[in-house]
Specification:
about 500 residues; alpha+beta; eight-stranded antiparallel β-sheet; five-stranded antiparallel β-sheet; about 35% strand
Length: about 500
């Protein structure tokens, strides 16, 4: 068994899968054995490998082509760079609008950016020397932006990606039926020579294999779920204090800092480029002070819980410079795993913004029941609640009027009643977010009455994971409401 260690120095890996256009965003992960073999050939040319060692290299490559390797993959998250390319008119020498270049890749943690390839082969001493020499000639892996070094190591972690006929990841491998010289010629063949010169629609020497990626052992994962922390509270300090209506700037800046330190799904909300729809990634909720005017704490919650690495990343975010103009904030962990919110009555602490337009038909509102419009504020609120797994709102949903409000009924029984009104001073809130879709400019204040006690957090609508549409128990609202009313009065007086 030989182990090849690939160290990504920029914490990024950019390589599109074989046969896919770079703009399609399909990442070659795990790195295909075909890619590794071609990289070894490139490394041999870079170090000017002597011709007398070329037969050894050919035999080595043929030996590796017969075996599918296993991998130890680091945790990653999908990223995509977009950069405009100016269009130059050679006749007029003017630069005009051009195409947009798309470059997809994977982002790794600064603590875990090493990949290991395990090849179950036995090499002679001279073959190991030639392999080490070829690896030393490589300065990147994949696209040239992915600066990396490769070397042989004696030991490596256990693999978490192995060849499997039932696997879901498709990678390119070398055809094991090729002889030594045919494999060498195929590995040296360029795309231009094959498609342009030879006019061949098929690249020779390639077959396909499937791999299974094991994120973690299931038993270990289940044990960790019982011990993981689901909530972390950070104390916010700084001079001047950050107004509560700028909370979205704080949560965005904190989210960026966490992803740069630990690009795990619990922070990114994505797994291999696919967005999570289970609300298991982090929810950011800014908590006001006694006046209700300034941010005093930030509460982070994850339904799946935080690993030790994720907790370490949170602890490292002690300073957040340039949250907004004139605001440099400091954060410190104030509490871990407590402050659970449980109540029957909930009310909005930040404005709830709609994420889709209320339904209309032939220019007239399409009514859900007599007084409430389909996809209106109350209807959207009740639909969002059903996507929060910790609320356990299961059953066949129906909607009806109940005591002048709109009620969600599950299997015929009233589960929760919702009412909406315009949030006081919603226009003062910073509410523009890169993610999601906001329709309209009106923010709403929501009141919920559950049939039983439920545990929070409760988030609704546009930019909910960043603090908008957050709700708190009614008993905690008295001080916040008084502070908001006082703040609105002061702003109105100063404006007059």
């Amino acid at each position: 068994m030989i182990h090849i260690k690939i160290q990504f120095h920029t914490n990024q890996y950019q390589a599109c899968a074989w046969g896919n256009l770079h703009a399609e965003g399909v990442i070659d992960w795990p790195p295909a054995p075909w890619r590794i073999l071609r990289s070894l050939v490139a490394g041999a040319y870079n170090v000017n490998l002597s011709e007398k060692y070329q037969p050894i290299l050919k035999a080595l490559l043929h030996k590796l082509a017969f075996v599918q390797p296993s991998y130890t993959l680091p945790p990653t998250t999908y990223i995509q760079h977009r950069s405009p390319r100016p269009q130059v008119n050679l006749k007029t020498a003017k630069v005009g609008p051009g195409k947009t270049l798309y470059s997809a890749g994977l982002l790794m943690s600064s603590h875990q950016h090493d990949l290991y390839v395990h090849w179950s082969v036995t090499l002679a001493e001279i073959e190991e020397l030639v392999l080490s020499l070829c690896l030393s000639g490589l300065t990147y892996f994949g696209r040239k932006e992915s600066v990396a070094t490769m070397k042989l190591v004696d030991t490596a972690p256990e693999p978490n990606a192995e060849p499997d006929a039932q696997g879901t990841r498709i990678v390119a491998i070398a055809n094991p039926d090729l002889d030594v010289d045919a494999l060498w010629n195929t590995l040296n063949l360029s795309a231009h020579e094959n498609y342009g010169v030879n006019r061949s629609a098929v690249f020779p020497g390639i077959r396909w294999a499937t791999y299974r990626i094991n994120q973690q052992l299931q038993v270990q994962q289940q044990a960790d779920e019982q011990q993981r922390t689901h909530s972390v509270t950070l104390a916010v300090s700084g001079s001047p204090k950050l107004p509560l209506n700028l909370a979205l700037k704080l949560t965005h800046r904190l989210h960026q800092a966490l992803i740069s330190r630990c690009p795990a799904p619990v922070f990114t909300g994505q797994e291999m480029g696919e967005p999570s729809r289970k609300h298991e990634h982090t929810i950011f909720q800014c908590l006001p002070d006694r006046t209700g005017r300034y941010v005093e704490q930030v509460r982070l919650y994850s339904y799946s819980g935080y690993s030790l690495e994720a907790l370490a990343a949170i602890a490292c975010c002690s300073e957040l410079p340039r949250v907004a103009r004139g605001y440099d904030l400091k954060l410190a962990i104030a509490d871990i795993g407590s402050n659970e919110q449980v109540s029957e009555d909930w009310i909005s602490s930040t404005p709830f913004f709609l994420s889709r337009f209320p339904a209309v038909r032939r220019g007239k509102p399409r009514m859900l029941v007599a007084r409430y419009q389909k996809d209106g504020p109350e209807h959207q609120v009740l639909q969002y609640l059903q996507y929060l797994p910790w609320l356990n709102l299961q059953g066949t949903p129906t909607y009806r009027e109940y005591k002048d409000h709109l009620a969600l009924c599950l299997d015929g029984k009233v589960a929760v009643v919702a009412s909406c009104q315009v949030f006081p001073g919603f226009w003062k809130w910073e509410s523009e977010c890169r993610q999601g879709k906001k329709v309209g400019q009106v923010g709403y204040q929501v009141q919920l009455k559950f049939a039983t006690m439920v545990a929070g957090p409760i988030i609704l609508g546009y930019a909910a994971h960043y603090g908008l549409g957050a709700m708190i128990p009614m008993r905690e609202w008295v001080g916040v409401y008084q502070g908001i009313v006082q703040n609105n009065d002061m702003l109105t007086t100063s404006a007059n």
